[in-house]
Amino acid sequence: MSSQLHLSQHAQRSSEQAIGFLMQQAVENADCISLAAGLVDEQSLPVTLARSAVNEVLGDEAAGRKILQYGTTQGPEPLRRVFRSYLADLEQSENELRDLPLSQIFLTTGSQQLLSLITQALFDPGDICLVAAPTYFVFIGVLQAAGARIIPVKADENGMCPDALQKTLETLKSEGQLHRVRLVYVVSYFENPSGVSVSTERRPQLLRLTQEYSTESRILLLEDAAYRELRYDGEVSPSIWSFDKERKTVILAQTFSKSFSPGVRVGLGVLPADLVKAVSDLKGNEDFGSAHLNQHVLARVLKNGSYRQHVEIVRASYREKRNAMLKACEQEFAGVPGVSWLHPSGGMYVWMRLPDHVHTGFDSEVFRQATQVEKVMYVPGELSYPFDWPARPKCEMRLSFGVQSVEGIQEGIRRLARAVKTVMKFNG
Amino acid sequence: MSSQLHLSQHAQRSSEQAIGFLMQQAVENADCISLAAGLVDEQSLPVTLARSAVNEVLGDEAAGRKILQYGTTQGPEPLRRVFRSYLADLEQSENELRDLPLSQIFLTTGSQQLLSLITQALFDPGDICLVAAPTYFVFIGVLQAAGARIIPVKADENGMCPDALQKTLETLKSEGQLHRVRLVYVVSYFENPSGVSVSTERRPQLLRLTQEYSTESRILLLEDAAYRELRYDGEVSPSIWSFDKERKTVILAQTFSKSFSPGVRVGLGVLPADLVKAVSDLKGNEDFGSAHLNQHVLARVLKNGSYRQHVEIVRASYREKRNAMLKACEQEFAGVPGVSWLHPSGGMYVWMRLPDHVHTGFDSEVFRQATQVEKVMYVPGELSYPFDWPARPKCEMRLSFGVQSVEGIQEGIRRLARAVKTVMKFNG
After folding, report:
1. Position B363 pLDDT exceeds 70
2. Chain A residue with minimum CA distance to B210
């Protein structure tokens, strides 16, 4: 018997991913204070609320049996109606989004499953996706596994720059590559990793450019709004999706993992009508539908108002942690030359930049000093760019305030500052 | 803006699938007694049990919070230990399978997700999968979406025929195609649709052939044991997996959807060690792990013994329904020439064969008479073969005793018999 196992191209492309390296580092550095983990704040997880909701939906035997039965691939229509109403609330829609057909709504296993399904539905190897630089590194991995060509587009503190998007699309057009562009990927609220949101002004601009360059085939815009409800201050921006009046361009991906519980694993997607069948076919092959019971639990807390109350608790908890991290950065990095960080209005991350020559990758002196000597772990910023992008900065760090307590955050930043100062030989 | 949406090859191949046509027929014939639906018996779904289990696992605030947090891609190790112990029980293993590394165990969203992941991990377009004829039609769809070449292998009342498997492999060898064979797919217990199990004698034979022909690259055997615990009489067969002492060839897929609840959506897989990373990478991209809460619920009922008690209730319920369907067939089809059916010892289906010239497909006279006149619906047997297989029989039907009550089964079979007799002009 030959012992050699032959893996598909897809599997081979999936093997060298940032998340894999990161998980390995997390295991190897389990004794560190983790400012790396993307887990959610555990203290505010809604144990009592979830238990009550389950008791309610399984309270009646006959109704309960239907809930323990298979649902449907997209999630049952009555539930999708509840989720549409929730979305209408977020969108401050006057007509409760009654004009949005329920057939365009998908309930998924977290929003991650939607990102994966969309990628499967759209990408053949060599097809192009435009992403902000930096962007969500797990999605970079999904694109790489699909063999996609990933082109980073400049982003600043107001999100992806329309000028840069236009320039990139124009270049692709002149190269005769516009027909390979499938998707523009935008994390519109409090992006992982940078914490930046796309400004209200830029939202319709990004949409319009996506539409304008859809001359060869339709380019879609995937709006990842995973962190949408984790807003701690600043204005409420309408979704990019809300500007897409024809609903042909934007795919909206949301999740209840951050605002309610990742262990319940419910995500919500809205798709252009003519993408529905393809994604439904793919999801049918994948699971026939996500866990039906969990969809009912979420629908219940949405309907009885307890979800909304819970989000306020979650926000208050994260706001305090965000403030603690920013304050600790100010104290501990005071006067260190060339070190700066963004002030996020939401989400779970502070994005820090060191001087260009001070690298932060797994093989860097800073990472070694942080994890081996000071016992603190972060996510190297370079993971948030396509690994084959020559221009990717190597001096950044993603610092999560998700899992640590306020004290853990303070101590973590103190240790990190010591590590950076040691490497930079800063004695100020 | 161009309105044309460009779908991937994968999505295009996913679009024309049996399950899609079937769902459409189910919607269009909603007024029929359904002997088609693959749903489970609703009356025996464990509402009280599931509610109690949730209350237990979420009973303690601190422990509950960890359960509402992210799990891990494969499911947390302590839970996988519980599932391994469950498997050891099924396998009547003396050493509790302590020699099976937990790293080779996956918790999935039903077993369907494992089938999908395995296909993604192994198949490039043109790669070959051998399947029993007939076999589980949803998996045929998954393979078609991957662009696989599907080769049916003769099966009889003892399951896939080793002689036929050998002949097929020998032919592929002589054609120089052995290097493209990735997988032998076997539903080992009470196959959907035929109700047939692979006999104990044949199990090691199928395994040995798979190993013997692994000369170019390793051929894997995917043992789909979804219906394993729905056994109503006859001997207990060891799994094919249990014969694979080196654990390099067989992938074992199981689910709790049939024996407990499809709405909770927990599946269980065991993989050869060197396939683990690929599948884990793919699953990481797909969802980071299935719903953590649900895994704890299943682990709880496995540990406290209530699962085992529940399976007995489920068995008793299905046994009664199976008996009712067989009895109704004997009464209603008595004397109709050329009509025969198999007597399943488990599972959810009775497989019926009409005379060769009496077709049963969606466009057949029998289907029309059944759904339009008599108001009863079944699954045409031809869906359970690759649609491009010239030899596929067109005169079979899959009759499910899963969802209907005993009375519904009796009435359904009565109607079906009337439809068949009308088309066959049988007045006996």
Report:
1. yes
2. A1
**Shared domain check, A209 and A193:** yes
Q: Which amino acid is at B118?
A: I
Q: What is the pLDDT of residue B29?
A: 86
The token pair at B412 is 């359904």
Query: How close does chain B come to A198, measured CA to CA in Å?
Result: 24
Contact B1 A212 (CB under 8 A): yes
Put simply, the answer to whether A109 touches B290 (Cβ < 8 Å) is: yes
Nearest CA in chain A to B38: A70
**H/E run at residue A341:** strand A340-341
Residue B363 placed within a domain: yes
CB burial class (10 A; 0-12, 13-18, 19+) of residue B199? middle
DSSP letters for A17-28: -HHHHHHHHHHH
Confidence category of residue A1, pLDDT binned at 50, 70, 90: low
User: For B126-165, how does the pLDDT look when each residue is reduced to its tens digit (9 = 90+)?
Assistant: 999 999 999 999 999 999 999 999 999 999 999 999 999 9
**Chain B: nearest CA to A61, how far in angstroms?**
6
Residue A349 lies in a domain: yes
Question: A3 and B218: CB-CB below 8 Å?
Answer: yes
Give the residue from B417, B424, B406, B378 showing the smallest Cα distance to B38: B378
User: d(Cα A13, Cα A146) in Å, to the nearest integer?
Assistant: 7
List CB contacts (< 8 A) between A123 and chain B.
8
Chain B residues with CB under 8 Å of A59 CB are 51
Average pLDDT over residues B93-118: 96
Based on the fold, state whether residues A127 and A237 are members of the same structural domain. Answer: yes
* Average pLDDT of the segment spanning A307-322: 97
B294 with B401, same domain: the answer is no
**Domain encompassing residue A128:** 48-308
Residue A1 lies in a domain: no
Give the number of domains in chain B: 2
**Rounded to a whole number, what is the distance in Å from the CA of B368 to chain A's nearest CA?**
26
**B294/A293 Cβ within 8 A:** yes
Residue of B nearest to A208 (CA): B1
Q: Which residue of B has its CA nearest to A23?
A: B72
Q: What pLDDT does B204 receive?
A: 98
Q: What percent of chain B has pLDDT over 90?
A: 92
Identify the helix (H) or strand (E) that includes residue A317: helix A306-332
Q: How far apart are CA B103 and CA B93, in angstroms?
A: 19
| Residue that finishes a domain, picked among A286, A308, A330 | A308
In the predicted model, is pLDDT for residue A19 greater than 80? no
Q: Closest partner residue to A292 among B113, B220, B263, by Cβ?
A: B263
Residues of A in contact with B282 (CB under 8 A): 10-11, 14, 145
Query: Which of these three, B286, B308, B330, is where a domain ends?
Result: B308
Select from A129, A284, A134 the least CA-distant residue to A219: A129
CB pairs under 8 A between A and B: 287
pLDDT band (50, 70, 90) for residue A28? confident
Distance from the A232 Cα atom to the nearest Cα atom in chain B, whole angstroms: 22
Average pLDDT estimate for A380-403: 95
One domain, residues B249 and B355: no
How close does chain B come to A5, measured CA to CA in Å? 5
| Reported ipTM exceeds the 0.90 cut | yes
Q: Is residue A2 part of a domain?
A: no
Return left, alpha or beta for A288; rule: phi > 0 is left, psi -120 to 50 is alpha, else beta: left
Nearest to A69 by CA among A55, A57, A56, A80: A57
- Confidence band for B309, pLDDT divided at 50, 70 and 90: very high
Q: At B424, is the pLDDT very low, low, confident or very high (cuts 50, 70, 90)?
A: very high
Same domain? For A320 and A368 the reply is yes
pLDDT of residue A286: 94
> Both B56 and B194 in a single domain?
yes
Same domain membership, residue B122 and residue B194: yes
Question: Which domain CATH number covers B24?
Answer: 3.90.1150.10
Same domain, yes or no, for A36 and A115? no
Torsion angle (degrees, nearest 10) of CA B34, B39, B43, B49: -170
